[in-house]
Structure formats: C-alpha cells, structure tokens
Amino acid sequence: MTVALPRLEELVLVHDLPIAAAARLDLLLERFATDPQAPTTVTAPREGADVHVADSLVALEVPVVREARRIADLGAGAGVPGLVLALALPEATVGLVESVGKKCDFMARTAEAMGLTNAAPVARRAEDWPDGIGVHDLVTARALAPLTALVEYAAPLLQEGGHLCAWKGQRDPAEEADGAAAAEATGMALVEVRAVRPWPGVEARHLHVFCKISPTPPRFPRRPGMARKRPIVATS
Questions:
Q1: How far is Cα 66 from Cα 138, in angstroms, rounded to an integer?
Q2: Percentages helix, strand, coil for the chain, rounded to the nearest 5?
Q3: Which of 61, 197, 198, 224 lies 20 to 30 Å from 205 when distance is taken between CA atoms?
Q4: Which helix (H) or strand (E) holds 160?
C-alpha cells in the first residue's frame, strides 16, 4: 500500500469504477516506485496518482472510450494509459504497442502482477503491425508524437467508425491544422477537442478525438518512421 491509496479511491469513485480497483492501481504505482526497470520519470506514488492514473482515467469522460472493446495503445511505454484503461474497461482487450523490448517486459510483468488478463504488450511499431490493421475500435496515444503522425499511425489500425483519442496539452493551431490534413488524407475526421481537468491545478489539457469515416488509402501505413520524417502538413 502506498500513500496514494486515498487519492486512488477518490478517482475510482469519480469514474464509477469498483472500489477494489484502487488497490490494483496502487500496485501499479508501487511498481513505478520500486522497479528499477520502470520506464517513467514520475515514480513518487502520490504524484503518479495524478500524472499517471487521473490523466488516464479522464479519457472515460469520452463516451467512445468507455464503449471501446478492442483498443490499441500506441507508444505504450510504462503502460499508461493502456494498463489503467484495461483495468477500468474489463470487457475490452488492450494491445500495448511498444517497440522497445525492455518496456514490453516491464508491462507484461506489471499486467500479471495487477491480475490483468485483457492487456498484453505488442512488440511492434504501429506502422509495422499487420495483424493490427483494421481491427480496432479505439486507438489511444499519450505523449507520443504530433497530431499529424498520430492520425497517420491510427487510421490503418481502426475499423470504420473507430476512433483515435490523443492526449495533448495547450492547443496549437498549426499542429491541429496538420492533424486535419492527415485526417483528410487517411479517411479520418475530427470529432471534438475536449478540454479536461484530470487533477486540480493541472495546466491546459485536451483530448483530441478523431473518427475513421472512410477506408484508409492503401498507401498507408507508410514505412516505419516516415510519418515523422515526412509528415503530412497543411498547405499554406
């Protein structure tokens, strides 16, 4: 048990989760604090309750996130938000898409310790995962890449009608314009940009939600790295 447990109990009540979920989230924060292989710089449990858990759970304010049943969490890293959403959505399966083997090992061990049978690492890049093409109803991405790249990564993995939920901070008109250009090129469309407040005092935080409205052209996904090296951008 960590000092974060009271805050976690508050969060699970706010998001209408079973109170027992707080202890399993507490275990996640304990692993961040004690496992030397934990791939995160935020290791203090009380801080992690906000930065890791509250920031993940705030996506449940978006109905399509709560309704998702097959999720791909891109650049899953330490398992946030993927492991948190897997706990919150036990009827969903979550692929923790991460190309770094050590991070995958950490997530696998942590998922087992948390008793999660609906989340597993996928040791691939999003652009190089043929089994993931067209089978997801939700893609999540937090602290990973500019919107133009996130939209390009997500579109091939989504079935039509599926959604991308991307965590961002302060709104950036140029980044959003590039994201819109990528959406137009890949069969996606912006649904909403939702201002959220995961914890008191947090600076600007937004969830960008896109929907796949038409088939993604066959030239996507491009080769790994191309979405960042040669991004789709808005024309001036």
A1: 10
A2: 45, 20, 35
A3: 224
A4: strand 158-168
